[in-house]
Amino acid sequence: MLLINDAEVREVLAMDDCIEAMQRAIAEETKGVAVSAPRTRYKVQADLDQAGYMATIIPGAVPSCDVASMRYASTIVQERVVGGVKRMNFLSPSKRNWDFVMLFSLQTGEPLALMADYSLSAIRVGATTGVVHRALAKKNAKVVGIFGSGHQARQSASHYHGPRYRVGESLQQY
Predict the structure, then answer these.
(1) Considering only CA atoms, which of 33, 21, 3, 40 is closest in space to residue 124?
(2) Taking the CB of the first residue and of the last residue of the chain, which one, N or C, has fewer CB atoms within 10 A?
(3) Angle CA 150–154–158, to nearest 5
(4) Confidence bin at 108 (pLDDT 50/70/90)
């Protein structure tokens, strides 16, 4: 089984390749072939006024890639109510998540890889943005708007480079 750390994830995954893979996975899910199950979340919190541990588990499979996956997110959260709506503050002292993705062979069931998910998560969101951009943006579009300014928004913005876009001049983050 491969163990792939966060630096290796950033080094080996090219955004254009990830967009192609995401496009294939979305097409398979549309046909009812790929599996993307709803997330499961649990919290260990003795008191709602105190911070507590929270885990999120998301399974899925893409047959054309011959893999099943499980994403496990591990973090510390503090629930609070703002304007009558329950919100969660993510309180990890390191200001990051401690998530991983595990890949399994659809042929043998054996584990293939355990990958750090900090950068992978942002790349996954960026690839999804790239699929949507390819499908919906006008071919002569010169301006891109992205909601957010954090880690995932920066990765989404990385797709918009080259002569068509002058990042900094034409990319607006909201």
Answers:
(1) 21
(2) C
(3) 170
(4) very high
Using a cut of 0.70, tell me whether the model's pTM lies above it.
Answer: yes
The residue written with tokens 């993705």 in the block is 101
State how far the Cα of 67 lies from the Cα of 115, in Å rounded to an integer: 14
Quick one: which of 68, 80, 165, 51 has its CA closest to 109? 68
Q: Can you name the residues that pair with 4 across neighbouring β-strands?
A: 115
Q: What is the Cα–Cα distance from 78 to 15, expressed in whole angstroms? A: 34
Helix/strand/coil (H/E/C) assignment for every residue in the chain: CEEECHHHHHHHCCHHHHHHHHHHHHHHHHCCCCEECCCEEEEECCCCCCCEEEEEEEEEEEHHHCEEEEEEEEEEEEEEEECCEEEEEECCCCCCCCCEEEEEECCCCCEEEEEECHHHHHHHHHHHHHHHHHHHCCCCCCCEEECCCCHHHHHHHCCCCCCCCCCCCCEEEC
pLDDT at 21 over 90: yes
- Say which residue the tokens 């876009």 belong to: 165
Percent of the chain with pLDDT over 70: 78
